[in-house]
Amino acid sequence: MNAGVNARFDFTAEVPPADQLGAVHFVAIGGSGMSGVARLFLARGIAVSGSDRVDSTTLRELEAEGARVFVGHDATHVEGAGTLVVSSAVPESNPELAAARAVGLRVLHRAQGIAALLHGRDAIAVAGANGKTTTSAMTTVALQAAGADPAYVVGAPLAGTGTNAAPGGTDGPVVVEADESDGSFLVYRPLVAVVTNVQPDHLDFYGDVDAVERAYADFARTIRPGGLLVTNADDAGALRLAERARDEGVRVVTWGRGGADVLVSNARGEGMTTRASLTWTRTLGSVVEGTSVELVLPVPGLHSIDNATGAVLAATAGLGLELGPVLQGLEAFPGAHRRFERVGAAGGVEVVDDYAHNAPKVAAVLQAARSAAAGRRLVVAFQPHLFSRTRDFAEGFAGGLAGADVLVLLPVYGARETQEDFPEVTSGMLAQLVRGAAGETQVQVVDDLASAPQVLRDLVRPGDLVVTVGAGDVTTVGPRLLELLGEGEA
After folding, report:
1. Average pLDDT, whole number, for the chain?
2. Long-range Cβ contacts of 50-58 (<8 Å, 24+ apart)
3. Sheet-wide strand order for 192-195
4. Residue of 357, 391, 411, 440 with fewest CB within 10 Å of its CB?
5. How many whole angstroms separate alpha carbon 295 and alpha carbon 201?
6. How far apart are CA 361 and CA 4, in angstroms?
7. 381 alpha carbon, distance to own chain's centre
8. What's the CA gap between 368 and 163, in Å, rounded?
9. In Å, what is the CA distance from 98 to each residue of 91, 93, 143, 410, 442?
């Protein structure tokens, strides 16, 4: 495989409109990503079927909405389908995918399935190493507040709706979270592309940072003629992208602390609220040069300002919507699942959960947590995700995690990788780096996920803020910790 090239799918090829796909079968339809896309097809009146390894509430919900669902994977499940939709995680050995290939059935990646729904609609595609889920969610909420009635497909359920996908109005815009991890973000052909940042990640696919930056340049080239690239001038990679895109004739709008079209100043956190001033240095869409407003967000972390400013510019400079309703929508932003999401409180201890899994995201979450803690002790349980990522960015992880008062490190969540291939990469290795970066942080390594809640129970004390962090199954730790703390109250 060539670095940064997906050998299984051609994301540069045109995708037929959804109504030309026939009945659509989804492999692993119960997953959060697949189920959302399946719901959009159902909303279009297209026949949908799908299978998953185990039964779930999601499968039963889809069945009630009109899908034909199967528990388990079998070649017979694709009979009658005109198109098969899979994700990169589905191997070619899957019996349903193998059967589809054998008879020449059209096979689309999940992203191509979304692209089939975009024909005739204006799309806002949000990409970036960090912040794309929250920015996508914020953009959706901003458009809703401005009356645009968008469809959306994002990486996590919106707290306000409980779902990560909805069809919106018939002619409204579509907000799509564009995933760079497998190159699939090249498929959408958006009217507006928002790039939160361009940083090295998914090097197991791209190989090196140069390949990552080339991929984002290719993404910018997929913007429709007359469309817009919105990006962050404070991020070196994104700034290079903006300069290259401008040279190639793409309309570009930037935000940043200096030398940008929209200047961000006086950013500060106040507990769970974050504020900043935004000033337009030129007229963009509905907002005239010299306009200055306060952006207020009900979520912590200075990185939230960047996410929200990208959403503001997508809505106003990209779609021409009025600034006032957009800001009002963001001021009431309800959050997204596993993005600094409050799990609960017991025994005087508050627990928050976050999906952060690369080094800059972890550092941003720790900074947000420190603001939210507002003087309280900060206890962090971190589960590294992927052995290769932990190895490649170990010092970056350590620098961010050193912001905790107490740190509990879980074993590395390997996902598609195995410990045997990376014998030297362990949470113990990361613990040594954290101890070297911060003499004040209390660090403890646990042997397995199951023991983490009790370890935390023994470490925490009333008044603490506990944040569980990672893209694996660390999300189960917070609820169990609360149970243990609740038992102590009884």
Report:
1. 91
2. 50/25, 50/26, 51/25, 51/26, 51/27, 51/77, 51/96, 52/28, 53/28, 54/30, 56/30, 58/29, 58/30
3. 165-166, 151-153, 174-177, 123-127, 192-195, 228-232, 251-256, 262-270, 273-280, 292-297
4. 440
5. 30
6. 22
7. 20
8. 25
9. 9, 6, 41, 37, 51
Q: What pLDDT does residue 371 have?
A: 82
32's tokens: 């959060």
Q: C-alpha angle with apex 127: 121 to 131, nearest 5 degrees? A: 125
Residue 266: both structure tokens together: 């006086």
CATH of 118-331, one of 3.80.30.20, 1.10.20.10, 3.40.1190.10, 2.30.30.240: 3.40.1190.10
DSSP code string of 347-410: TTEEEEEE---SHHHHHHHHHHHHHHHTTS-EEEEE--B-HHHHHHTHHHHHHHHTT-SEEEEP
DSSP state of 412: P
Q: Is the pLDDT reported for residue 240 higher than 80?
A: yes
Phi-psi label, residue 344: left if phi above 0, alpha if psi -120 to 50, beta otherwise: left
pLDDT digits (tens, 9 = 90+) for 43-81: 999 999 999 999 998 899 999 999 999 999 999 999 999
User: Which tens digits make up the pLDDT trace of 196-224?
Assistant: 999 877 777 778 888 899 999 999 999 99
What is 341-489's CATH superfamily? Mur ligase, C-terminal domain (3.90.190.20)
Structure token pair of residue 225: 């003629």
User: Which phi and psi angles does 406 have, rounded to 5°?
Assistant: -130, 130
Domain spans of the chain, in order of start: 18-107, 118-331, 341-489
DSSP reduced 3-state for 124: strand
With vertex at residue 472, the alpha carbon angle to CA 468 and CA 473, rounded to the nearest 5 degrees, is: 70
| 122, 109 Cβ separation under 8 angstroms | no
Residue 51 carries which DSSP code? E
C-alpha atoms less than 13 angstroms from C-alpha of 59 in its C-beta half-sphere: 18
Number of Cβ within a 10 Å radius of residue 228? 24
| Residues annotated catalytic, as ranges | 132-133, 177
Rg (CA), the chain: 22
Q: Is 197 exposed, middle or buried (0-12, 13-18, 19+ CB in 10 A)?
A: buried
Over residues 285-317, the pLDDT tens digits come to: 989 999 999 999 988 888 899 999 999 999 999
Q: Both tokens of residue 129? A: 């190493």
Cα separation, 149 vs 170, in Å, equals 9
Annotation: CATH topology of 18-107: Rossmann fold (3.40.50)
* The two three-digit tokens of residue 113, written as one number: 């399935």
On the question of pLDDT at 490 being above 50, the answer is: no
> Could you tell me if 359 and 446 are in contact, meaning their C-beta atoms sit under 8 angstroms apart?
no
